[in-house]
């Protein structure tokens, strides 16, 4: 199924690009998601989804297929499998950014394939759910990430901007995902700001076989609560049940009328 969404962020395209391509920084804003490790250009983690009393955990990876900053276009491929073997979810997400006044408009097209329990909701409910989850993501993005990277003395590079060099009380520049930190050294931890940025600790790659640093970096993001699809899609599910309940009520009324006629 194809899902389309649009949102705006109150920063220019250059800053929006720097933030939205920094998966490690924005991962804590993704509902139900937990980034666990990075190897090269591959980001690995889990997404938890709750359907009634059942919680499914999808373990998988995300990889950028395309990053064209000049065109403001990026393509991300996500693949996940239920750890119990009861389904999988795959998505190709295409985002395009363009200036919208002082801010940035982002159009998102998601080509989503889902099997298992989650697939029972259908396109209509999934569209409503994804819209609500995107709203939560954008709200977190603006209040905890963008606000943090914009803080600083006048917003000049090196004083809190997303593209500036780290300074006192500023957000750090992204650490390369290829494990370029010296063996045994820790990469800079995310600097706390007055606005509560959710920058994650960026640990150095762990040595392997005593031959130098591994290309895998472990990420210390806190475990996320699962996304409750029934709660999130409550009204959408109710709307689809109303016609069915109406038909059932009519059948019951007809049967009662027949019994009285006898």
Strand content: 25-35%
Helix/strand structural class: alpha+beta
Shape: globular
Distance between the termini: 51 Å
The CATH architecture comes to 2-Layer Sandwich
Going by CATH, what is the homologous superfamily?
START domain
Low-confidence stretches: 152-210
If helices are DSSP runs of H or I spanning 4 or more residues, what is the number of helices?
A: 5
Main sheet specs = 9 strands, mixed
Number of strands: 9
From the 3D structure, determine the CATH topology: Alpha-D-Glucose-1,6-Bisphosphate, Chain A, domain 4
Helix content: 25-40%
Quick rundown:
The protein is of the alpha+beta class. Helices cover 28% and strands 31% of the residues.
